[in-house]
Write a sequence for this structure.
C-alpha cells in the first residue's frame, strides 16, 4: 500500500512541478514508443485487460475459476474505481497526452482527453493487486508481468507518458489493496478473511 501511495504521490508531484515533459521522461517515452510497429498486434490484446470491458471479463473469469463472490466483488470494485476515478484525477492534474506535449510521437491508438493518470494502468494494477494474493505463487509473477506489459503498451501506443503509467500503477495498487481489505480477503499486512 505504501508503494502504491509513493508511486502515485511521487509521480503527481513531478507532473505538477513541470509545465513541460522532463527530459528523462521524454527519453524513456521515446525509447519505448520507437519500438517497431510489428509488435502492435502482439501488444494490443493484453493491453485490453486494462479497459473497462477487459476488466469485467477478468472479474468474470475469476468468478468462474474460484466461485468466490467476495473476490469477484473486489475485482469489480478495484477495477471500476480505477477506471472512473482516473477520469477525475485527469481533470485535476490536467496533463495532456504525448502527442500534444512531444514531437514525433508514433500514435498507434487514438486516445483523446487528458493523460495523467493512466486509467488502463490503474485498472490492471487494481485487478492484479486483488487477484495475486489469491493465486498460486507460481502464477503471481505472470500476473504482475502482464500488468507491467499493459503499462508499457500504453507508452508504446503513444497514449501515455511514463509518469502517467507510474501514477496509474500506484493508484491501482492502492485501490486493489483497499478492495481486498474492505472485503476481508486478507493478504500480507491485511486482516484475514472472516
Amino acid at each position: 500500500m505504501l508503494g502504491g501511495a509513493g508511486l502515485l504521490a511521487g509521480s503527481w508531484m513531478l507532473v505538477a512541478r513541470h509545465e513541460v515533459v522532463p527530459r528523462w521522461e521524454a527519453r524513456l517515452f521515446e525509447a519505448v514508443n520507437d519500438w517497431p510497429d510489428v509488435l502492435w498486434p502482439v501488444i494490443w490484446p493484453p493491453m485490453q485487460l486494462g479497459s473497462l470491458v477487459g476488466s469485467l471479463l477478468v472479474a468474470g473469469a475469476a468468478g468462474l475459476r474460484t466461485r468466490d463472490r467476495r473476490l469477484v466483488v473486489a475485482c469489480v470494485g478495484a477495477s471500476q474505481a480505477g477506471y472512473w476515478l482516473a477520469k477525475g484525477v485527469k481533470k485535476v492534474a490536467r496533463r495532456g497526452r504525448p502527442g500534444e506535449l512531444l514531437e514525433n510521437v508514433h500514435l498507434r491508438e487514438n486516445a483523446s482527453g487528458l493523460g495523467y493518470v493512466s486509467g488502463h494502468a490503474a485498472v490492471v494494477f487494481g485487478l492484479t493487486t486483488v487477484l495475486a494474493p489469491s493465486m498460486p505463487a507460481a502464477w503471481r509473477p505472470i500476473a504482475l508481468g502482464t500488468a507491467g506489459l499493459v503499462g508499457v503498451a500504453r507508452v508504446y501506443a503513444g497514449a501515455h507518458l511514463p509518469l502517467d503509467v507510474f501514477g496509474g500503477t500506484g493508484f491501482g495498487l492502492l485501490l486493489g489493496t483497499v478492495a481486498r481489505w474492505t472485503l476481508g480477503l486478507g493478504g500480507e499486512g491485511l486482516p484475514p478473511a472472516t
